């Protein structure tokens, strides 16, 4: 259990938390959200013991039960596989003791250590680590490569695999999807759904949060608000709360009208029935959540291009690749005004190669690329922020493009990207990745492109900025080709999907849900075991079935008890939420409500005791189940 009571936390003299309270029960999966700089990462550091409260109380599991994903990794000579297995600290400790006992021929120590190794499923450690690495996109032949041979993004994946390898009761993940493509994200979602411990995750990917969380902790105005349900439920609840504030009413109505107008226009123009229906449903949902973003600091658009051609760009029988080696062959693609194309495909299939070729950044190996007379491209590459001048300000970046523009006009435009006051005129040397990504998008938007080529534009962007980008792309009057692992962005801004796979790019008539199933099928086929070699003894299926039946017989009643305890915990948590709501009503503290207040406080104390007892029983039962599973695995 994590319990924060009346917490006070300062960083550099700046208050991040004031009288903040939060209770997270074992097994809950919680998304931690809030504006950039509100203290999400500081809260993680607090839970890990790297920071200490300036006031209040904190109850947290012991450090040995906590796993967290490091943000940096040394360039080690250790193999990728060994580096990930190192995450299982108890395993490595037993292996070390075993090696010492064998070296000293301590036969009385060797057998017990082998038993301990079997009890924690140590003999399957290599298999477990290999599955984690495979799920995160590593090819089998790369597992023996040293850590130093991998790029920064792949090292972050190694860190994530090592974190998942840890034996933890509390898992802290800070932006785990930042360096993952869509197929790895989908795999990670499935893994985290089955994680039995407490999960606390910071993410700017709303679809990912929806899939893996059942509660949301929102840091706002230096306090913590706890919401039951996933991120979509949080948006609706917060939207309802903000909609009640009269000061925001007018802005909210304008945003609703904006989305309704887009839905009407989309209904009239859509040609693909399945995509159209999926899109309309998604946009209708956006209308519901719009009030949750009325206080967003971001509001911008892509100004319409001065001129536009009937056909913006065409690839004809094009072969695309590097150093004479083709990755995609015979590509035929024409992009017209109003086209909104999302590129799907596994990692390394050629999505970025196609974007670069369309942008003219990568020469064709063969075939023809032709652009319209008025083609004007706005290209956002995966590493676009590296091209910015650290010694220049956001204002100076735009002044270099438009030296005759009025300064106030430029400042007004930058304000939509939340560069206001001194920040607009300060150098960007100390800007965060998210701030630099916003500036890169601002520079593209200012140049009025009629074709947007966007390769992972949401990397480093927070949820509010992603929402603003989604709205801006919906209103963009030119054309767009988008590569993104943010499914919400793809679903709400594209009218057409193309699948890039196995050397070709072609229209994909299904939707994102079918694409997820297609990816899963591809993964199953890759991992399908080869046929048993000739002469190898076949598996005794009768004995296997008998053992499986025996396992079910022993585990079934324990799992039933576990399920009952979980249901009991859900009921207790709901009662706790109801009592907290009752006690948050100021009327209960009036003179005539003294008996009611006394009763509610007594019930709250009883509820806390019952929750703790139930959680202890749940933990004991879970440990018993894990022991039995380990015992069965070693037989």
UniProtKB/TrEMBL annotation:
Task: Domain (ABC transporter): give its ranges.
Answer: 2-246, 313-527
User: One Pfam family this chain carries?
Assistant: ABC_tran_Xtn
**GO MF annotations for this entry?**
ATP binding; ATP hydrolysis activity
Concerning its family, UniProt says: Belongs to the ABC transporter superfamily. ABCF family. YheS subfamily.
Q: Which UniProt keywords apply?
A: ATP-binding, Nucleotide-binding, Repeat
Cite the source lineage. Answer: Bacteria, Pseudomonadati, Pseudomonadota, Gammaproteobacteria, Oceanospirillales
Q: Does the keyword Repeat apply?
A: yes
- Alphabetized InterPro entries for the sequence: AAA+_ATPase, ABC_tran_Xtn, ABC_transporter-like_ATP-bd, ABC_transporter-like_CS, ABCF, P-loop_NTPase
Is-annotated flag, keyword Nucleotide-binding? yes
Per the record, where are the segments of Basic and acidic residues compositional bias? 539-553
**Record's protein name:** Probable ATP-binding protein YheS
Annotated SUPFAM superfamilies:
P-loop containing nucleoside triphosphate hydrolases
Q: Where is this region: Disordered?
A: 524-558
Question: Cross-referenced CDD domains, in alphabetical order?
Answer: ABCF_EF-3
């Amino acid at each position: 259990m994590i319990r924060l009571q009346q917490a006070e936390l300062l960083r550099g003299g700046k208050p991040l938390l004031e009288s903040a309270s939060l209770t997270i029960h074992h097994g809950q999966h919680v998304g931690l959200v809030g504006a950039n700089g509100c203290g999400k990462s500081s809260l993680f550091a607090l839970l890990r013991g790297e920071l200490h409260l300036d006031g209040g109380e904190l109850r947290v599991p012991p450090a040995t039960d906590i796993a967290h994903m490091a943000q940096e990794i040394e360039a080690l000579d250790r193999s990728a596989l060994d580096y990930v297995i190192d995450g299982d600290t108890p395993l490595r400790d037993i292996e070390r003791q075993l090696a010492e006992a064998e070296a000293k021929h301590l036969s009385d120590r060797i057998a017990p250590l082998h038993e301990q190794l079997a009890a924690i499923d140590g003999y399957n450690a290599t298999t477990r680590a290999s599955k984690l690495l495979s799920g995160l996109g590593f090819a089998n032949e790369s597992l023996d490569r040293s850590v130093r041979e991998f790029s920064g993004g792949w090292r972050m994946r190694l860190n994530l695999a090592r974190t998942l390898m840890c034996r933890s009761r509390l898992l802290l993940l800070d932006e785990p999807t930042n360096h993952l493509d869509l197929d790895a994200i989908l795999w990670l979602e499935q893994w985290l759904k089955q994680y039995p411990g407490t999960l606390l995750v910071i993410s700017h990917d709303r679809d990912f949060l929806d899939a893996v969380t059942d509660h949301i902790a929102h840091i706002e105005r230096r306090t913590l608000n706890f919401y039951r349900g996933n991120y979509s439920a949080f948006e609706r609840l917060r939207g309802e709360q903000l909609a009640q504030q009269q000061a925001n009413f007018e802005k909210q109505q304008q945003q609703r009208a904006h989305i309704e107008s887009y839905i009407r226009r989309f209904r009239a123009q859509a040609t693909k029935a399945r995509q159209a229906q999926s899109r309309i449903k998604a946009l209708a949902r956006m209308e519901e959540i719009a009030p949750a973003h009325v206080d967003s600091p971001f509001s911008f658009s892509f100004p319409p291009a001065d001129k536009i051609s009937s056909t913006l760009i065409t690839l004809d029988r094009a072969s695309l690749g590097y150093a004479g080696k083709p990755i995609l062959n015979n590509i035929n693609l024409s992009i017209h005004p109003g086209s909104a194309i999302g590129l799907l495909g596994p990692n390394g299939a050629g999505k970025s190669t196609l974007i670069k070729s369309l942008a003219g950044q990568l020469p064709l190996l063969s075939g023809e690329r032709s652009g319209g007379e008025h083609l004007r491209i706005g290209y956002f590459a995966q590493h676009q922020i590296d091209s910015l001048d650290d010694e220049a300000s956001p204002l100076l970046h735009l002044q270099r493009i438009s030296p005759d523009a009025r300064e106030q006009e430029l400042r007004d435009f930058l304000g939509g990207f939340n560069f206001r006051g001194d920040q607009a005129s300060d150098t960007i040397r100390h800007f965060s990745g998210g701030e630099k990504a916003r500036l890169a998008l601002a520079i593209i938007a200012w140049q009025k492109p009629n074709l947007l080529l966007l390769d992972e534009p949401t990397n480093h962007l927070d949820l509010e900025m992603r929402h603003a980008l989604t709205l801006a792309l919906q209103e963009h009057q030119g054309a767009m080709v988008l590569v993104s692992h943010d499914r919400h962005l793809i679903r709400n801004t594209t009218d057409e999907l193309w699948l890039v796979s196995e050397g070709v790019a072609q229209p994909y008539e299904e939707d994102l849900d079918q694409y997820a199933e297609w990816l899963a099928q591809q993964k199953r086929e890759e991992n399908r075991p080869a046929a048993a070699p000739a002469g190898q003894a076949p598996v005794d299926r009768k004995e296997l079935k008998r053992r499986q039946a025996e396992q079910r017989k022993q585990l079934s009643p324990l799992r039933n008890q576990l399920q009952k305890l979980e249901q009991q915990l859900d009921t207790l948590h709901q009662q706790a939420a109801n009592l907290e709501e009752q006690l948050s009503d100021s009327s209960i503290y009036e003179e005539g409500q003294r008996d009611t207040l006394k009763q509610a406080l007594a019930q709250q104390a009883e509820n806390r005791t019952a929750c703790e007892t139930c959680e202890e029983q749940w933990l004991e039962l879970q440990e018993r189940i894990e022991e039995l599973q380990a015992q069965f695995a070693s037989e």
